């Protein structure tokens, strides 16, 4: 899957969860999806409309009430939903699942299967700031999803980062769709 699409999907907190639920067969009615995600109404609505804008979801014509529409995956959405489901299944602990709602978690793990420097990761991700990347590194290291290695033999010392544990499983789940 294209890294630009992954970045766009993850800009809204609940987009990945909504896609995964639709892949699992949760009905495309707004009330059912809202209940299954356990999201707030505003954040859920923003994520839902974001997925429609990306062309991954569409209103199901002829189904649902105008005030309570039903949604379905588009052909592109089917692939994205399968990837989202694999990613959520790769996280064994429910306490770690909120980390996937953060905007840069999935993109950073996607481009970090092997050791890469800060600059290489930043170059691979469109429009990420140094601060956002640094904060994401700290969060992922804190959860044991990303490992930092400093090569002290190099001058100056050089740090590299790569996905480990659940982070590596998430990386493989994304790359299965590539």
Number of helices: 9
N- and C-termini, Cα separation: 5 Å
Give the structural class.
alpha+beta
| Number of domain modules | 2
H/E element order: HHHHEEHHHHEEH
CATH superfamily of the largest domain: Winged helix-like DNA-binding domain superfamily/Winged helix DNA-binding domain
Q: Please give the CATH architecture of the largest domain.
A: Orthogonal Bundle
Order of strands across the widest beta sheet? 1-2
CATH topology grouping of the largest domain: Arc Repressor Mutant, subunit A
Proportion in helices? 40-55%
Query: Care to count the β-strands?
Result: 4
Low-confidence blocks of residues: none
Question: How large is the radius of gyration?
Answer: 17 Å
% residues in beta strands: 15-25%
The CATH class of the largest domain, by name, is: Mainly Alpha
Determine the mean pLDDT: 91
For the largest beta-sheet, the strand count, sense and barrel status come to:
2 strands, antiparallel
Structural description of this entry:
The protein is an alpha+beta fold and 178 residues long. The chain has 2 domains: 1-89, Arc Repressor Mutant, subunit A (Orthogonal Bundle), CATH 1.10.10.10; 93-178, Arc Repressor Mutant, subunit A, CATH 1.10.10. Helix content is 50%, strand content 15%. α2 crosses α5 and α5 runs antiparallel to α9 (166-175). It is elongated, with a radius of gyration of 17 Å.
């Amino acid at each position: 899957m294209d890294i630009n699409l992954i970045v766009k999907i993850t800009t809204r907190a609940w987009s990945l969860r909504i896609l995964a639920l639709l892949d699992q067969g949760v009905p495309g009615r707004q009330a059912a999806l809202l209940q299954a995600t356990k999201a707030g109404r505003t954040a859920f609505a923003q994520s839902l409309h974001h997925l429609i804008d990306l062309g991954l979801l569409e209103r199901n014509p002829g189904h649902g009430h105008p005030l309570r529409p039903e949604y379905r995956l588009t052909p592109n959405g089917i692939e994205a939903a399968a990837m989202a489901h694999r990613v959520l299944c790769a996280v064994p602990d429910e306490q770690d699942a909120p980390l996937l709602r953060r905007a840069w978690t999935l993109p950073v793990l996607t481009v970090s299967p092997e050791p890469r420097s800060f600059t290489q990761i930043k170059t691979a991700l469109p429009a990420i700031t140094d601060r956002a990347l640094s904060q994401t590194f700290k969060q992922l290291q804190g959860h044991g999803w990303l490992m930092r290695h400093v090569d002290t033999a190099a001058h100056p010392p050089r740090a590299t980062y790569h996905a480990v544990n659940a982070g590596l499983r998430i990386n493989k789940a994304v790359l299965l769709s590539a």
